[in-house]
Specification:
The complex is a heterodimer of chains A (170) and B (273). Chain A is globular, with a radius of gyration of 15 Å. In chain A, α4 links the parallel β6 and β7. Chain A has one domain. Chain A contains five helices and eight strands. Chain B is of the alpha+beta class and 273 residues long. Chain B folds into three domains: 109 residues, no CATH class; 54 residues, no CATH class; 69 residues, no CATH class. Chain B starts with a helix and ends with a strand. Chain B is globular, with a radius of gyration of 24 Å. Classes of the chains: A alpha/beta (170), B alpha+beta (273).
C-alpha cells in the first residue's frame, strides 16, 4: 500500500475472481455478520496481508467514509462493510494520498455507487484540498463474474474518468 | 477581556498576550453552563483563530532567529489547526488574516530544504469518542461526528490501541514533523535566511517563482579564469576540479523571490542544486 503518488490519473481494469459470495465466505466473517451482509449491493472490503500484517485491515478514514455513505443513502441501495466492531482495524500511513479502499459493487447499482463515492470525495476531501490525490479499487460483479477498476490520481477528475470507463464498457 | 475585545485583539497583526486561551476557556465554560451551544462553538472558532495565528507568528519569529526546525514545526501546527477550522468558519475575505496565512504557509514551506520525511505505519483499533467517551465502533457508535463541534469541543476519535509496523521515508506525508537529521550534514537555509532578513513582519507580502534549469559554471563570470587545481571561485575552500567543475550540467532549481515593501520591490534570486 503506497504513501504517495505523483500520477495525475491512472486507470487499470483487470479480471478478478473476487465476488460477493467469496467475500462473505472469508474466515474472519462470522455467521452473524454473514447473515447481515448477504443482500449487500455495495460492500467495503478490507485488505489482507498488508505490510506483513495478516489480518483484515481497512485504510485510514474508512470509518468516516462508511458513516458518510450511511448518512447520504436514503435506502436507495444496501451498503455495508465486511467487518463488525470486534475485527475492525485501520492501517495508518499518514499519507498525503488518500486511499478510499476496496469496494465491491453489484453492476446494477454501479452508477449510484460512483455518485456516492464522488459525494464523499467532493464534500470531505476536495473541500479541504482541491489538489487531493486518491486511490481506490472498485470490483464490479455481474452474474457472478467480476472485474476490478483501479483508480489512482487527482480526486477532482475521478467521477468523469470512471463514468467514461463505464460508458466505454457498456 | 470580553469576547468583543478578544475578537478585536485577534484582528491585530501582533499577538503579544499569552493568556487568551485561558480567558476564552472561561467564556466557553460559562456558555456551556448556560446551554449556549452556538456561542460555545463561536468561542471554539476564536480559540482556533488564536492557535493558527499565534503559531504562524511564532514560526516567523523563529525563522528570524534562525531556529528553522522549530519554525517548520510551528508552520505545520498552524496548518493543522487551520484545517480543523476550515469547515466551521468562512474566512475567504481574509478575516483575522487567515486567508493570508493559508496562502503563505505552503509558500514558506517550499523554501525549507526538507524534502524527505519519516512516516509511521501502524494498525489502529479500539476507538472511543472524545466527547462522550463511549466506544466508537464501525457499527455501534454514538451520535457524535468526528470534526464537528459539541459544547465548544471538536469531536475526535481516540485511538486506544496502536500496533506499530514500521517507518517509511516519503516526500509528502500528511504531517511533516519527522525530518531526518543526518549526523554531520547540515541543511542549507540560505534562501529562507535571506528572505526573512528583509521582512519586517510575518504579514509582509512576497512572491515566489520556482523554475528548473541546468547549471553551467561557464555562465558565471567569476569562473572565467578558474583553474582545475586552484580553489574554487565559489568560495567553498576546495579545489575547483572537486567542486563546481564536477557539478557542471546538473539540474538546478531557481527561486525568484520578490518582496513587496511599502515603497519598493526587493528582488532576490537563488539557485539550488
Amino acid at each position: 500500500m503506497k504513501h504517495e503518488t505523483n500520477v495525475n490519473k491512472m486507470i487499470k481494469i483487470s479480471a478478478t475472481d473476487l465476488n460477493f459470495e467469496k467475500a462473505l465466505n472469508k474466515s474472519y466473517i462470522s455467521n452473524t455478520l454473514k447473515e447481515q451482509l448477504k443482500n449487500s449491493q455495495m460492500l467495503i472490503l478490507p485488505y489482507e496481508n498488508v505490510k506483513g500484517y495478516t489480518g483484515p485491515v481497512f485504510p485510514e478514514g474508512t470509518m468516516d467514509f462508511f458513516r458518510y455513505l450511511e448518512s447520504i443513502n436514503n435506502k436507495e441501495i444496501k451498503i455495508d462493510i465486511c467487518a463488525d466492531d470486534d475485527i475492525y482495524k485501520e492501517l495508518i500511513l499518514h499519507s498525503d494520498l488518500v486511499n478510499i479502499g476496496l469496494i465491491l459493487v453489484n453492476e446494477v447499482v454501479l452508477p449510484i455507487a460512483v455518485n456516492f463515492i464522488w459525494y464523499y470525495i467532493e464534500n470531505n476531501l476536495l473541500n479541504k484540498n482541491k489538489e487531493q490525490k486518491v486511490k481506490l479499487e472498485i470490483i464490479v460483479e455481474k452474474n457472478g463474474e467480476s472485474k476490478k477498476i483501479s483508480y489512482e490520481g487527482d480526486a477532482i477528475v475521478f467521477k468523469e474518468t470512471i463514468n467514461e470507463i463505464i460508458k466505454a464498457s457498456e | 477581556m470580553n469576547l468583543i475585545e478578544i475578537d478585536n485583539y485577534l484582528r491585530k497583526k501582533e499577538l503579544d498576550k499569552d493568556n487568551i486561551l485561558e480567558i476564552l476557556a472561561e467564556h466557553k465554560k460559562r456558555a456551556v453552563q448556560n446551554n449556549q451551544e452556538d456561542l460555545a462553538k463561536d468561542i471554539w472558532c476564536l480559540e482556533q483563530v488564536y492557535k493558527v495565528k499565534k503559531n504562524f507568528i511564532q514560526a516567523f519569529k523563529n525563522m528570524k532567529k534562525q531556529n528553522f526546525y522549530e519554525a517548520w514545526i510551528l508552520l505545520d501546527r498552524s496548518d493543522i489547526e487551520l484545517s480543523f477550522l476550515r469547515k466551521h468558519f468562512d474566512f475567504s475575505n481574509n478575516e483575522y488574516h487567515l486567508s493570508f496565512i493559508e496562502e503563505y504557509i505552503p509558500k514558506y514551506q517550499k523554501l525549507f530544504p526538507y524534502k524527505l520525511f519519516f512516516s509511521r505505519e501502524a494498525i489502529e483499533s479500539d476507538f472511543t469518542c472524545s466527547i462522550c467517551q463511549k466506544p466508537m465502533g464501525i457499527r455501534n457508535h454514538c451520535e457524535h461526528i468526528v470534526g464537528e463541534i459539541y459544547n465548544g469541543e471538536m469531536c475526535c476519535r481516540v485511538v486506544n490501541k496502536i500496533e506499530f509496523l514500521g517507518f517509511a521515508i516519503v516526500k509528502n506525508p500528511f504531517d511533516k514533523y519527522c525530518v531526518p537529521m543526518i549526523q554531520g550534514i547540515e541543511y542549507n537555509y540560505e534562501i529562507l535566511n535571506n528572505l526573512v532578513s528583509v521582512l519586517d513582519s510575518p504579514f509582509d507580502e512576497w512572491d515566489l517563482e520556482v523554475s528548473e534549469g541546468i547549471w553551467h559554471y561557464k555562465n558565471f563570470k567569476q569562473f572565467k579564469d578558474a583553474k582545475r587545481n586552484k580553489p574554487c571561485p565559489c568560495g567553498s575552500g576546495i579545489k575547483f576540479k572537486k567542486c563546481c567543475y564536477k557539478k557542471n550540467g546538473r539540474k538546478i532549481t531557481h527561486y525568484n523571490i520578490i518582496v513587496k515593501k511599502s515603497n519598493k520591490l526587493v528582488k532576490m534570486k537563488f539557485s539550488i542544486q
